[in-house]
Design goal:
Shape of chain B: globular
Helix content of chain B: 25-40%
Structural class of chain A: alpha/beta
Strand order of the largest sheet of chain A: 6-7-8-3-9-10-12-11
Largest sheet of chain A: 8 strands, mixed
Structural class of chain B: alpha/beta
Strand order of the largest sheet of chain B: 6-7-8-3-9-10-12-11
Radius of gyration of chain B: 21 Å
Oligomer: heterodimer
Distance between the termini of chain B: 46 Å
Number of strands of chain B: 12
Radius of gyration of chain A: 21 Å
Chain lengths: 356, 357
Amino acid sequence: MALLTRPARATMVEAGTSAGADSNPLLRVRDLEVTFKRGSARVQAVRGVSFDLAVGERLAVVGESGSGKSVMSMALMQMIARGGTIEAGSVELDGRDVLPMSSAELQTIRGREVAMVFQDPMTSLNPVMTVHAQMTRPMRQHLGLSELEARERAIELLGATGIPDPHRNIDAYPHELSGGMRQRVMIAMAISCEPRLLIADEPTTALDVTIQAQIVALLKRISQERSSSVIFVTHDMGLVARFADRVAVMYAGRIVEMAPVEEIFEAPKHPYTQGLLASIPSIDGDLPERLSQIPGAPPDLATLGAGCSFLPRCGQASERCAEVDPTLVPIEGARSVACVLYADYTASPPTEGARP
Amino acid sequence: MTTAPRTTATDFLPPPSREAGRIPAAGGNTPLLEVKGLKKHFISGRSWFGGPTKRVRAVDGVDLTLKRGETLGLVGESGCGKTTTGRMLVQLDSPTEGRILLDGVDYLSSLGITAVRKQADIKAYRRRVQMIFQDPMASLDPKMSIGASIAEPLTVQRIGSREERRARVEELMDQVGLDPTTADRYPGQFSGGQRQRVGIARALAVGPDLVVADEPTSALDVSVRAQVVNLLRDLQSKLGLAYVFISHDMSTVRFISDRVAVMYLGLIMEEAPADDLFANPQHPYTRALLSAIPVPDPKLEAKRESFLLEGDLPSPENPPPGCRFNTRCPLATDRCREEVPVLEEKAPGHRVACHLV
């Protein structure tokens, strides 16, 4: 397929490895904080998130609802729902901080440099425009294609995302397509201008598994062939294993563990990650009599007390956990964890740098 | 979990089967549930003369059996008819065709001719078959205390006095791991996992033999799912419940099910003991479905054979002739495009509907 075989941009050579510590990251996020107003309370949705993303790297952000994973990934492009505020932090794309940018400046980045895919396709599709009109405009603008070239490429992309009969469906309006087809149109739009970074927030959650498998395979192939970076927000540990190079596990607004994908599945460090992985029944191995379970429920982010936010559910808690609210600190290799089991939080103020 | 003997609160529940007076005592061989040729066609739009213009064959001939205390997993993609099958099993949808036998008795054919009689029949049926829904927030009345919600089936069925119902609610809440002193609170004051416990308690209130659970863990946070799955399993061994567990979460299905049936476009494609189905899938659709599901193990993922399906599900309004899977099946032959394969036993307990197996 032509769209997949066009040569990658020259700037994206040394990509793929998450350990490219000495090369410049595509994205550098530091101390990002987002709060929401809820009545008179302040909900700390994102509580100081820092990480780097290498060129061509696929980072999975996992967590359950309320963990801050969606808010965090949307805030990277200043996208915050009503009532929310980015309180602090910086998000550098190629060394330029995007958080202070005006919406006009952002417009030049969105679509071309950074594209987004949301869980609900109707949030980003225009209901009164055909797929053709919505898909060709950005390609003509950003890639300088003619109307006809853009249409051909759009058809090709629609076909690649598994849309049947793309020659006909390109002239459909969004409401004429099924939910799964709309989702695939959005993904085709997002990758149409070959963005350097794709932020995908649960892009396949609403789709059936056979369609999900097609889409994830496509996203992975594009990322590999074009060295584009992906931030993939999900709650499905299976998808993480299939798709990601590196994993950030979020809990209560914070990254509690970050590691290369093999390492996190092989030897999870944070008690939450351990509990999460242990609670998933195997699809091919022996099965236990009972599933291992994490007791309790995630905390309310408006009423977080002192100490570790996972403490009430943690089986390995000690007295220290009530005193220290651990931040993410590097441990061995390319890994970092936010837990008193792995770092001494009294000795010196820990560095927030999540980057291995 | 308490190991105390069942309290007197349940004793007021008369055995529904004997009370109904027409159900033979469960013999050793009679399955609890037997479903034969079950169909549900939805009619959308009618012509001038009242004839149907569109007929959606949501379920198009399903046979199932279920023993007491057994769990049958029902899997497939959206639109395969698994939820409609589940809704027919609890009489939320009435079948277009087919028979549902409970302990060998056909409730559908015995449904009375008058509307009043029919309501009474369905009520008696629901004493024995109950449902757990996917989204407990949507299935619970937000303006009703959870105690009242749990007691509602008892009120509808006119079981017990007010005090007895109160005691039963406390017992149920205790059984599902909720604090009975919170019975006066409202659904909004509970977390997702707790609300699903309320939904489970409500389904168990009348002491059913069979519970149909439609995606009971899909709306829950990942860290809470295992709690609910364990609870369902504990309740099953304690109360001898049979489950029909409808889900697209294959790893949970494998964990909880004794047998699994795979549906595609309104038909069962394959049915086998859970371990057998997952280790040795026979139908090309089952193989595609299993390989599409990502496994939480990066090393395994890297070396798994991928068997990606092309395209979308055909519309159940107009299913393809022959085998319904033939339009997406990489192995399809001419025979598959013409002749409908029958669901046949290919190995002991392992039924497959495929010409090539």
